[in-house]
Each structure stands twice: as C-alpha cells, then as structure tokens.
Write a structure and sequence with these properties.
Layout: E1 5-6, E2 9-10, E3 29-34, H1 45-74, H2 78-105, H3 108-126, H4 129-135, H5 138-160, H6 168-182, H7 199-207, H8 214-232, H9 237-243, H10 248-258, H11 264-272, H12 275-280, H13 284-326, E4 339-344, E5 348-350, E6 353-355, E7 358-360, H14 361-367, H15 378-383, E8 392-397, E9 409-411, E10 417-424, E11 442-446, H16 447-457, H17 461-467
Antiparallel strand pairs: 1-2, 3-4, 3-9, 5-6, 7-8, 8-11, 9-10, 10-11
Helix pairs in contact: 1-2, 1-5, 1-8, 5-13, 6-13, 8-10
Length: 470
C-alpha cells in the first residue's frame, strides 16, 4: 500500500475509488482496470499448432524433469529448501500456466473455432482484389516460418535462449560479454536488451548484491547441460565444443568452482572497465560465453530474419484484413497497455459439480494440514479465535484478464473497490488463446477479507482506520 504526499503532508484526494463497505455479492457487475501483459488470440492456426506441439510440450517435459531435480535438492535440508524455494515456486507457477495453455490448444472446440474463423477471413480476403494482393499470401508465409522454427527450435532455445546453461553465473557472464560489445555501437545498432533505455535494468542485475549459491547452481547447470546433450546429440559439434571429454557434472563443477562472478564488486569492475578487460579475463564463464557467442548470435539472427520478421510483417497484413472484416468486434491482443474489462460474480461447473463464487476464512483453516502447500502461517493459527471465519475471503468473476493484471482493482457499479485481482482459475490460463465464459474465471481477494486480516490477524488498526477515512 502506498501513501501519497503533497507539500510534505498526506494528500487529501478529492477523486478516488473508496473501499466498499457492503461487500460483493453473487451476480454483481464488476469492472477490472489494469495492464494485461500478453495474449496470443490472433495467432494463425499454424502458429497455434507450433505453440502446442513444439514450445509447450518442450517446456513442460523439461519443467517436470527439472522440478524433480529441485525437489530432491530441497529435501537435503532446511537451508537447501530455502535456497531452492524461489526457483521451485516460479517453476510450479510456469507449469500451471503451460498446463492450462496446453489444455486449451488440445480442445477440439477451440481449434475448430480458430480454423473456422481463419477460413472465414481467408475467404473474405480472397473476395477482395486489393486485400488479396496485400494479404493473400500472409498465411502461407507464416506457415513457412513455422517450418523454420520447428527445425531450429531446440538449437535456438538451448543456445541463444540459454536453456542449455541454466545458471545465474551464465546470465551474468553473457550480460558482461555482450554488454561490453553492444555499448560500443550506436544505440540503434545494438541488441534491444542493451539499448540505452534498457541498460539501467541490465546494470541493476549485474550489480545486484543478491547471494548466489554455488551448490544449487551446480544442480541446475548439470541438469541443463545434460538436456543440451540429449536434445542436440552427443556428436553435435556444439555439444562437443561445450563438453569435450567431460561429463555435464564435471563441466558444471569446473565452471562454478573456478568463477569469480559471484562477487558483485568483481562484476562491477568488469562492467565499468574496458572491453579488453573482459576479453582478456580467464574466468571460465566469461570464456564459455566468448567461445559460444558467435554460434548463439548466428542462430538468433536466423530466428529473427526467418521467423519473427516474417510473422510480424504477415500478422500486420492479416490484422488489417481482420479489421476490414470485423471492425471493432474483436479487440486486439494484450500488450501491457491499460484496458478495462467487465464481468459478473459467478462460479462455474467443474466435472458436473457447481463451484461456488466465494471462499471464506473457515475454508482456509479447513484446508490447513500443517504441511506444504496447505500450511497456514503461525500468525493465522494464533489469531483463529479472533477471526470472523464466515467472512468471504476470495471470489471469482467472469472478467477477462491475463498475467499482468495481478493487483488490478475490481470495482462495482458504484465505483467502489470490492476486491483486488490476483490470479485466475486453471481454465483461465487458456485465456492466452481465447476467453471461455463458461470456465474462465478471475480470482480476487475481497476488500472485506483484506480488512478482516488487517484487523484480526495483523493488528493494523491504525492503517485500517486510515483506509476507511476515520
């Protein structure tokens, strides 16, 4: 929560959305404003098939195997569990999203609709001589780009994408090596991630004092090098260049035991020094990045020239044709820009059984097992006797949101905030490709639930009084 100041004093704001005191009710109209990150609802059928058959399958197969390795590591002790927590949490979250996306793209209903919509638009273009001359070949061009993408996917993902070198040390080494080269170029000639506008972010990452744990990095790097060899083949020249006669375990140990990149002072000295200093460094990770960078840049260039450039140009032509056919009946894909959605507070049917639109505090305690992932904090357990267990805690709506909307205010028809959006149900992860009002639901925490927690669990009575204008 933020407090705004004006002339050194808490600001008195005339226009704002107050917290609702009446709570939120079933079937109530709810608006959600926010900045949804990215959707892919306007992709062609061939692009959706590539996402389904190549990108998602690969990510999930790899993710499930990595989850096993990280889970085994966290079982070694409490410190290992703490160190692995963030990576494992992020991985679990990603797998949840990928699973929902794959379910959507394996849906006969979704793909049938996509094929019908595409056929309708293609027929519309074919009937208009001007549109046909402009956009008639766009779908074939995208299909050809998908063939290239499928051919180079493993190589691009492992090498330029960095999947074959899963370690913070590698990311830092690549930032240092490429940064030393890219910063010597005119801004317009640089790789986008090293443009003047984005350099501050790179510097924050390079200078970050956050600790790096070598033993944990070895687990991740060994795993990723093993997958690199598996995907590209033992005799692949790039694999031979990286591994030589060593095993993935031996390479990971040699690189991590020999690097100084865990020291932020060392990294800062390299970043602020000359390019010659980085080129002359004997740090094993810097040497690795230097050795493979020509290959990595080459596969990146082919991907950008033969896949993304073709997709972008063709997508613009298809979008123009779609607007001519449908006008504003179809809204554009999310691009992290502001938009407003509306919906209603409604549950859904799950395997023939109704799912209620609300949960309450009692439900949280009923789920408590004392073990992850159903372990409530000690502060909640200590406060149980003071909490109104019947108070609604979370609720679901038919609002159409996506990643990037977390924290978005949920507002009723009286311009009062009734909740804050923070997630979607598992079906909503297919919202990247379409919005299914029967199943997709936004999940929000109720304002009543926030107030109850502030009062009964956290004892933040002064903050609560200020929020309520008292």
């Amino acid at each position: 929560m933020l407090r705004a100041y004006e002339n050194g004093k808490p600001a008195v704001v005339k226009d704002y959305f107050p917290f609702s005191q009446g709570g939120v009710k079933a079937d109530e109209l709810v608006f959600t404003s926010g900045n949804p990150g990215r959707t892919s609802r306007l992709l062609t059928v061939s692009q959706l098939e590539t996402v389904r058959d190549v990108r998602l399958i690969s990510a999930m197969r790899r993710g499930y195997e990595l989850r096993g390795a990280l889970t085994q590591y966290r079982k070694l002790g409490s410190e290992q569990a703490r160190v692995a927590y963030n990576d494992l949490f992020s991985l679990e979250n990603g797998l949840k999203v990928f699973s929902g996306e794959l379910d959507a793209l394996q849906s006969h209903e979704l793909m049938a609709r996509k094929r019908a919509d595409e056929a309708s638009l293609q027929a519309y273009v074919a009937a208009d001589p001007m549109l046909k001359s402009e956009a008639g070949g766009a779908w074939k061009a995208i299909e050809k780009a998908q063939m290239v993408y499928r051919e180079i996917f493993n190589e691009f993902d492992a090498i330029e994408g960095g999947r074959g070198f899963n370690s913070r040390y590698f990311g830092l080494a690549r930032a240092l090596v490429r940064g030393s080269e890219e910063r010597t170029k005119p801004n317009g000639d640089r790789l986008p991630e090293f443009s003047s506008a984005r350099l501050p972010l790179v510097e924050r990452q390079v200078f970050s004092p956050a600790p790096i744990y070598p033993d944990f990095e070895k687990i991740k790097l060994e795993f990723s090098l093993t997958k690199l060899r598996e995907l590209l083949g033992t005799d692949d020249p790039f694999v031979v260049q990286v591994l030589g006669k060593e095993s993935p375990e031996q390479v990971a140990k040699r690189l991590i035991d020999g690097t100084k990149l865990g020291d932020p002072v060392f990294r800062k000295t390299l970043w602020e020094g000359s390019r010659d200093a980085i080129e002359a460094s004997t740090d094993p990770f810097l040497k690795l990045v230097r050795d493979i960078d020509t290959h990595a840049r080459a596969i990146r260039k082919r991907y950008e020239n033969e896949v993304t450039a073709v997709e972008q140009k063709s997508a613009e032509l298809i979008a123009k044709a779609r607007f001519a056919q449908l006008g504003t009946k179809v809204y554009p894909d999310a691009t992290n820009t502001l938009r407003l959605s509306f919906g209603a507070v409604q549950g859904w049917q799950e395997r023939g059984k109704p799912v209620a639109p609300f949960t309450n505090f009692a439900g949280a305690f009923n789920r408590h097992t004392g073990a992850e992932p159903y372990a409530l904090p000690d502060s909640w357990l200590a406060a149980k006797g003071k909490i109104n267990l019947a108070q609604n805690y979370n609720f679901v709506t038919t609002n159409d949101i996506i990643g990037g909307n977390s924290g978005s205010p949920m507002i009723n028809r009286n311009a009062e905030i009734v909740g804050l959006a923070f997630d979607g149900n598992v079906h909503s992860h297919g919202g990247s490709f379409w919005s299914d009002p029967k199943l997709n639901r936004t999940i929000g925490v109720t304002i009543g639930g926030i107030q109850e927690a502030l009062k009964s669990i956290y004892g933040a009575t002064e903050l609560l009084a200020e929020i309520n204008g008292k």
